[in-house]
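dumping this here so i dont lose it
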C-alpha cells in the first residue's frame, strides 16, 4: 500500500483538560450545555487547540457502482448512480442543498461509476466501471482496493489544502447497502438478518432475498475479517474504500471527521481496521434507519448526535449536524466567563 497509515497523531489530552476547566468558567450552570460540552472538549483534543475551528467544512462525495445490483438487491436501477452524479454536478441533490447551507467546499469524485460522465467540476478518478458481482466473483482486485483507499486519502489532502477544517464523507452507489451490510456482518460476526435493512426501499420479500444473497456471498467469498483490503476486494465497494482512505488522511492532519449514516459508518470501521487511532477523530453525526448502523456505531464506540430517521447517505446527515458541531466551537470562542461578564458564580 502506497500510503502509510501509522502517522495519526495522538489526541491532545492536556488541551482537553484545559478546555474542560475553561468551560466551567463560562456563564451557564456547570454541564448545562450537555453533549455540546463533550463535543467542544473532543474537538480541542483533536485539533490540539483551545479554540478549535471547524469552518469551512469539506464534503467529499465518492460515487461508484456495484455489480451485486444484478441480483435485484436495490429498489432502484444501477443507472441512478450516474444520473445522481450528474444531479450533484448540477447542484440539485440533497447534499448540494445542505452543503450550500453550511458554506461547505463540495467535491464529487467518480471512483468507479459504470458509465462515462463529462463535467468540468467532476473529479475523474475512475478505477473501473463498477465492481464485479460479488455473489459470483470477487468485487475487485486487492490492487484496486488499495488504489481506492489511496485516492480517497489524496482527495482529502487536497480539500484540506484548500482550507477544509473538518471533513464530511458522502457516497453514491446503488447497491451499496448490500456491500456495507456484508462487510459489517463479517466485521461484527453478527447474523446477517439482524443487520440488513431496506436501503432505498425494497419490499419485505426483497429484504429476505437480500439477506440470503448476502449470506451466500459471504460463504462463497470467505473474506478475512482481520484484513480490510481482503474484505473490500471481495465485497466492495470502491466508494466505501475511498471514504475510508479520506478518513485516514483527515485524522493524520488532525481534522475532525463528521461520520454520516450506515455506509459511511461501515467505511469508518474499515478505516479503523487499517489504523485504529483514526476513531479518535470521528464524530458519528446521526443514527440511520438501517438496522446495522447501531451495531456499526457501537463497534466504533460512538453515540450518534441526531436521530432524524434519515436513510439517504450522500453525507446529508453529517451536513445537517455540522451546525451543532460548529455551535460547540462558538460556545468556547464567544461565550463570556462569569468573571468577564460580572455574573455571580455558584455558591
Ligand atoms: C435517487 C437516489 C438518490 C440517492 N442518494 C443516496 N442514495 C443512497 O441509496 C443507495 C443505497 O441504497 P441501495 O443499497 O438500496 O441501492 C446509495 O446510492 C446511497 O447513497 C440514493 C438512492 C437513490 C435512489
Ligand atoms: O444510512 C445510510 O447511509 C443509507 C441508508 C439507506 C440508503 N442509503 C444510505
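and the seq i came up w/
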Amino acid at each position: 500500500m502506497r500510503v502509510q497509515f501509522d502517522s495519526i497523531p495522538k489526541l491532545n489530552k492536556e488541551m482537553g483538560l484545559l478546555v474542560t476547566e475553561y468551560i466551567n468558567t463560562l456563564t451557564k450552570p456547570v454541564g448545562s450545555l450537555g453533549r455540546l460540552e463533550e463535543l467542544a472538549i473532543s474537538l480541542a483534543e483533536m485539533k490540539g487547540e483551545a479554540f478549535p475551528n471547524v469552518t469551512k467544512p469539506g464534503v467529499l462525495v465518492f460515487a461508484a457502482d456495484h455489480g451485486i445490483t444484478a441480483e435485484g438487491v436495490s429498489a432502484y436501477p444501477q443507472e441512478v448512480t450516474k444520473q445522481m452524479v450528474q444531479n450533484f454536478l448540477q447542484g440539485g441533490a440533497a447534499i448540494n442543498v445542505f452543503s450550500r447551507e453550511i458554506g461547505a467546499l463540495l467535491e464529487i469524485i467518480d471512483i468507479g461509476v459504470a458509465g462515462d460522465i463529462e463535467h468540468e467540476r467532476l473529479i475523474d478518478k475512475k478505477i473501473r466501471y463498477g465492481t464485479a458481482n460479488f455473489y459470483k466473483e470477487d468485487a475487485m482486485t486487492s490492487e484496486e482496493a488499495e488504489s481506492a483507499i489511496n485516492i480517497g486519502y489524496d482527495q482529502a489532502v487536497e480539500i484540506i489544502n484548500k482550507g477544509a477544517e473538518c471533513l464530511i464523507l458522502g457516497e453514491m452507489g446503488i447497491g451499496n447497502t448490500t456491500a456495507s451490510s456484508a462487510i459489517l456482518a463479517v466485521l461484527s460476526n453478527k447474523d446477517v438478518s439482524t443487520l440488513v435493512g431496506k436501503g432505498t426501499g425494497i419490499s419485505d420479500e426483497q429484504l429476505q432475498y437480500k439477506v440470503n444473497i448476502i449470506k451466500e456471498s459471504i460463504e462463497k467469498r470467505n473474506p478475512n475479517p482481520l484484513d480490510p483490503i481482503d474484505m473490500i476486494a471481495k465485497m466492495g465497494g470502491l466508494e466505501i474504500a475511498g471514504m475510508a482512505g479520506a478518513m485516514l488522511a483527515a485524522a493524520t492532519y488532525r481534522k475532525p471527521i463528521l461520520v454520516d449514516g450506515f455506509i459511511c459508518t461501515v467505511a469508518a470501521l474499515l478505516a479503523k481496521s487499517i489504523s485504529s487511532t483514526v476513531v479518535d477523530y470521528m464524530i458519528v453525526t446521526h443514527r440511520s434507519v438501517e438496522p446495522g448502523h447501531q451495531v456499526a456505531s457501537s463497534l466504533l464506540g460512538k453515540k450518534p448526535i441526531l436521530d432524524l430517521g434519515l436513510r439517504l447517505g450522500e453525507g446529508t446527515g453529517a451536513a445537517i449536524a455540522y451546525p451543532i458541531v460548529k455551535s460547540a466551537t462558538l460556545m468556547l470562542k464567544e461565550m463570556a466567563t462569569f468573571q468577564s461578564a460580572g455574573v455571580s458564580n455558584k455558591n
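The chain has a mean pLDDT of 97.
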